[in-house]
Task: structure prediction
Amino acid sequence: MMQPRVTTVLKSLIVVMLVLLLASQILVIPEVARITAIRNPDVAQLEIPGIIGAIIFLALVEVTLVCVWQLLSLVRTERIFSADAFRFVDIILWTLASAGLLITVSYAVIVASRAVSLSLTLLAVLGIVVSAALALLVVVMRGLLRKALELEQDLSEVV
Result:
């Protein structure tokens, strides 16, 4: 069966992504913020809030990846059609909503500091649209999971 291999590969990729995200939080984000503050002294006051916002955003991505890991574990043990799965799906929904809110608040801070540009506006709109679209997709997938759970329970009663 291919499923155990696929889940193993996916879990390996999740580990790689988590390591890269953590390295970005520790090494890349502070350095980029420092360089940006030096090159643009008029927005240097946004260095620390920018670091905090970016680290929180990547932490939300990390939480989502951990939930996907847990869902893959449920698939592998054939327990995906259980109440446990809904907890992880709900957490993913909250992280997506939080990411959208964080992008919105960050953009408002940038606008208030008059550091807004067309590229930042486009990125903010893209981030908000992507987080909303992914959240809606997860809502649909959650509904499918609920329906599959109901069908499995109905089938087990018949047998």
